[in-house]
Fold these 2 entries.
Entry 1:
Amino acid sequence: MKKFINQLDDVLVESLSGFAKAHADLVSLSLAPHFLSRKEAARNKVVLISGGGSGHETLHAGYIGYGMLDAACPGHAFTSPTPDQMLAAAEAIATDKGVLFIVKNYAGDVMNFEMAAEMLSVENATVYTSDDCAVINSTYTEGRRGVAGTVIVEKCVGSLAETGASLAQCQALGDKVNQHTSSIGVALTSCTVPAAGRPTFVIGEDEIEMGVGIHGEPGRRRARMQEADAIVKDCVAAILADWQQKKLSLPDKHETLLLINGFGATPLMELYLLYHSAAKQLQQQGIRITRSLVGNYTTALDMAGASISLCLLDDEIKQHWDSPVHTAALRWGC
Amino acid sequence: MKKFINQLDDVLVESLSGFAKAHADLVSLSLAPHFLSRKEAARNKVVLISGGGSGHETLHAGYIGYGMLDAACPGHAFTSPTPDQMLAAAEAIATDKGVLFIVKNYAGDVMNFEMAAEMLSVENATVYTSDDCAVINSTYTEGRRGVAGTVIVEKCVGSLAETGASLAQCQALGDKVNQHTSSIGVALTSCTVPAAGRPTFVIGEDEIEMGVGIHGEPGRRRARMQEADAIVKDCVAAILADWQQKKLSLPDKHETLLLINGFGATPLMELYLLYHSAAKQLQQQGIRITRSLVGNYTTALDMAGASISLCLLDDEIKQHWDSPVHTAALRWGC
């Protein structure tokens, strides 16, 4: 394992310290316990707190700031944060309007966020993201996994919260965006967790993992390496089948957001090639793409691979996607 | 080699098509010959055109837009664009104020941009970037290489050009920013050019290449893998020695921009850890860091590694770094 680290025990704190220093205009770092929050705490709005294992950057700390999250609680690489982190973050920044947790549906995260929610005296609710349509139940989940679609949920709910909307309204929008979004990923290589020191899984020179999770957990099947168009074809079919199962209706003038997300070690050149392929194939199936995002937004450390997410926009979701945002990883209109 | 591609011959066009489609609000793509330019051509300003081999994304196409480039000419992966591309781009968008080419100092790029400049009937000038202080002369260069500091040059000159400044003023600022910026990179792994199909160079499990170029060309030395702090120490020493050699004077209240640039396959977690280490060590040496950028801004396809760039800001450079920019890869104030 070759990584830019010092002592294993210090990886998280040193990385968070770098993030906090590089984005000192946006965030503050608390170290006991670890959480990052907006430099200036927001008032009179529902407070949005997310978090999860590290190694998925720019998720979640990259989304702290105006129009998105109020705080993020990072665990060690691929390890859930502990309840005291969420509790401390919530107690530090809660408002009278309540706290909304946004949690990717992974068993460890769900358990620890639930414990924090129970201990928290402030009114709170939770949105669980489960956009990954690759598998139901998985190595670390009951039900579907929450993956890159979480970024879209955080963006839209973050926008709504800034308007002074209620906790119930924020939760409802989060659930809707999650329901409107389907994702599926494919791995070309494994990732390596620093503390493990070796690749998470073994994969052959001519193999890919279709439907991989963002920690390298198995997906639908091990397949032979194929051309990009063939891989995308499988992904698009999975997403559209999921939309059918969810009974999402597509009006003639529907609009969608297409997110091509890199897992960390895939060059942008390839991500844009995937975008080209996915956009072409979706359009052939009658899907209108009117918003796009391409880059490393929900990664799996140094995994080569990518995921495709498609979100059906309605007027409300579109408005909140387009609204101003100022975070380390997403910024427009500010 | 496992990559998200279809036919080798189609990689560039498919990737550019994806980029142009995903950023259709910002750029237009011309295919014969290949160049990307602003959706709406600017008027009454010096036109800025850059380019180079593909595989360094988000350089250069990611920097087309208000406050930065007017056009970018992409070659195949790690291959210079040909003069007809620069000539076509310049002829398509030139204004009376002239054309400024921004060229990384690599022999192929220099030759082809020079040929285009000679053929172009419009007044033009060229800024050559050479921020890499690792080596003088290299596999593909006479003199120093132009690397991630090019982003800072393009940002600042792009800002000045929007004010209606003259060709000579834009060229002078570009030369100054280049002179004020030193960079050095380190590779943990090789990259793989699609057309080659195998790693560009061989590197042992316990080795790193200190001072690597952005195509994997050799740097100062092959070293043993070390802790991040030790690697950064070497890089910081190289940069500060270069500043001394350049006779850059540091007033008490000086300010600097610290750029930690990923080469493509290094997780953000590690880039922020490097930022933490570099900022700490620079501060110990009396350097004041007041601007920061961390991410994949000048990559080397799927190479694991990173570079450190430090730019000495004066009032003029700072003003043009801070000014509004709206491109695919850098956006603020718009």
Note: The longest helix of chain A spans residues 228-245.
Entry 2:
Amino acid sequence: MKKFLNQVDTLLDESLNGFAKAHSDIIQLNSQPHFVQRVQPKRNKVALISGGGSGHEPLHTGFVGVGMLDAACPGQVFTSPTPDQMLAAAQAVAGDAGVLFIVKNYAGDVMNFEIAAEMLDCPNMIVLVNDDVSLPKSHSTGRRGVAGTLIVEKIVGAAAENGADLATCKALGDRVNAATASMGVALNSCTVPALGKPTFTLSDTEMEMGVGIHGEHGRETLPLSSATEIVEHLANAIDAELQPKAGQTVLLHINGFGATPLMELYLIYELAEQFWQQRGITIVRSLVGNYTTSIDMAGCSITMTLMDEELLALWDAPLHTAALRWGC
Amino acid sequence: MKKFLNQVDTLLDESLNGFAKAHSDIIQLNSQPHFVQRVQPKRNKVALISGGGSGHEPLHTGFVGVGMLDAACPGQVFTSPTPDQMLAAAQAVAGDAGVLFIVKNYAGDVMNFEIAAEMLDCPNMIVLVNDDVSLPKSHSTGRRGVAGTLIVEKIVGAAAENGADLATCKALGDRVNAATASMGVALNSCTVPALGKPTFTLSDTEMEMGVGIHGEHGRETLPLSSATEIVEHLANAIDAELQPKAGQTVLLHINGFGATPLMELYLIYELAEQFWQQRGITIVRSLVGNYTTSIDMAGCSITMTLMDEELLALWDAPLHTAALRWGC
């Protein structure tokens, strides 16, 4: 394993300390228990809180700030944060308007956020994100939450900043999640520091189609094909799920898993744009880059969200976080 | 070689097309010859133009926009752009105030930008960036231009946007370059698509200290050490070059080479911050992420710029490019 680290046990702490120092104008870090919160909490709004295992940076800590999350709880690498983190984060940032937890659909995350929600003595609700269409809806634990999570966080974040109440934010989050579909492909595995070796192996001529953001087995291991064929595979699955009609406006997000160059991600964007342009779909907003990563996995995912005027205005609303910033 | 591509020959074109579509609000692409320019050229200012081999994205195309570059000329991967690209870009964006070319110090880039400068029939000057302290100043072709380039481009870009004249922009660029030092380390080689195999090889227990952004051999191949020791090695070289005194304010930029997770880059930031904090240096601005990449190399570089009030105000000035955005 070749990584920049001192000890596996101290990697997360040292990294979070650096993150907090580099962005002290936006966020502050609480260490016991771990959570990142806005440097100036705004208590007269619904507090948006997310979290999950580390290793997906900038998700979620990089999305704390004006117009998006109020706090994020980082677990150990690929490990759910604990309820005490969520509870402490909520107590640090929430006011009378209550708390909306935005949770990716993984058993550990769901269980721990539900425990925190029960323990919390202010109004609260949970939005479950399950945008990964590589699994069937009937899958035993449901579909996974992947790169669409940031779109839910951004759009609901803008609504909360504008003063939307808890029920409105919850309904909006569910609506964005339902309008969003993602699917990914891996060329090479990530290496979890505590494990010290790749999570899975692929030969030089294979790819993992429908891979999860922790290296979970996808739909199938396939022979490595051309970028055009890969995009058609991913885009067909997303298109079958969302069934956009000609004339539909969408947001298209190409997400890198950590080790894929921007040059290749823009190539993927070009091919996905062609795929949907031929079907009469209009991409009104886009986001291309490494936002929901899988440590050092080579690969990418495509995410589409069906947009309307309301969602577009919320997407465009001012945003100031470590990883995304516009309008301020 | 495992990459997302159709054919090696079409990768750059397809990627640039995707980049142009994803950022059509900021930039437009000219195809014959290749250059990227602001969608709305502002002709009553000094035009800032940069360029170089592709494979370092987002450098330079990702830095075209309000407050930074007016145009960028992408060459083939790790290959200088040609003088006709630079000339066409200059003719597309320049007005009476003239052109400032910002050029990383590589023989091919320097030769081609000098040819373009001679052919151009409006006032023009060149700022040569050579911030890589891994090589001695006496090196036969001089020191390489690396991640400090974006700091020169940002600061001079703000001055040009404010109406500074050509001589002022040139002097400012030279001053920022002289106040900037960088050094990098690789854990693994990049793979150039046309080559199809890694540029160099390192064993599982080796690292390349002082590596160039094309995988050039550095100061020495060393046994892989702890992150703290790596940071001390890089920071000592930078510190010896710039010799910041206690009380000096600086900008600290941790740059990833493409395949290094953000979690590790923030760990590097933390350790570098500690290194200089112990010496009484104050980091007033920071930038952590993959900005001057080497395709899919695993590794990072540290860049420091000695700041003053003028440079700080220019760094903070509004900026709207594909890769960096603040204040608008």
Note: Chain B has eight helices and 15 strands.
